[in-house]
Amino acid sequence: MWRYSSNLYSSNIQYRFFFLASRIGPTILFFQENAGNIAHRLEFVRIMMQRLQCNVFMLSYRGYGESDGHPSQHGIIMDSQAALDHLTQRKDIDTSRIVVFGRSLGGAVGAVLVKNNPDKLSI
Predict the structure, then answer these.
(1) Residue pair 88/8 in contact by the 8 Å Cβ criterion
(2) Burial class (CB in 10 A: 0-12, 13-18, 19+), 50
(3) In a domain, 121, yes or no
(4) Domain extent for 100
(5) d(Cα 76, Cα 112) in Å, to the nearest integer?
(6) Number of Cα atoms under 13 Å in the Cβ half of residue 95
(7) CA dist 66 to 20, 39, 45, 116, Å?
(8) What CATH number does the domain containing 73 carry?
(9) Is residue 93, in this structure, part of any structural domain at all?
(10) Which DSSP letter does residue 36 get?
(11) Is the pLDDT of residue 31 over 80?
């Protein structure tokens, strides 16, 4: 397993993200709750990767953690689209096997993303 954190730029917003990869299996696009930051989810994600043999991409919403901007409903929807667009352009994953996972606020974010992108996601 390897992991890295980096920045993603979209619509003049700099996002912080973690990509944890096994290079096998599907890639889970993980949307978190509104409390805390993505680093607080790493133990849960480690167990998920171990049991599901998957990659996990976690984006810090605008205004959260080290990401720029201020949180808003419209902004977070745009953030989720930026994350999906980033994943679909990667060459090191199977882009036909992207699965959305969300908890609490992240569940609503993921539901909107799936509704808006049925052709890009594994349902």
Answers:
(1) no
(2) exposed
(3) no
(4) 2-116
(5) 10
(6) 12
(7) 18, 11, 19, 27
(8) 3.40.50.1820
(9) yes
(10) S
(11) yes
Alpha helix ranges (H) inside 12-102: 42-52, 73-88
**Sign of the CA dihedral with 15 first, then 74, 40, and 91 last:** negative
The token duo for 3 is 């992991």
Q: Beta-carbon neighbour count of residue 98 at 10 Å?
A: 22
Our count of domains for the chain comes to: 1
The residue written with tokens 């912080």 in the block is: 16
Task: Give the span between the Cα atoms of 1 and 15, in whole angstroms.
Answer: 23
Residue with tokens 């480690």: 46
Going from the C-alpha of 1 to that of each of 4, 16, 49, 54, 91, the distances in angstroms are: 10, 20, 9, 10, 17
**pLDDT tens track for 105-119:** 999 999 999 999 998
> How many CB atoms lie under 10 A from the CB of residue 4?
9
Mean of the per-residue pLDDT values of the chain? 84
Position 59 scores a pLDDT of 86
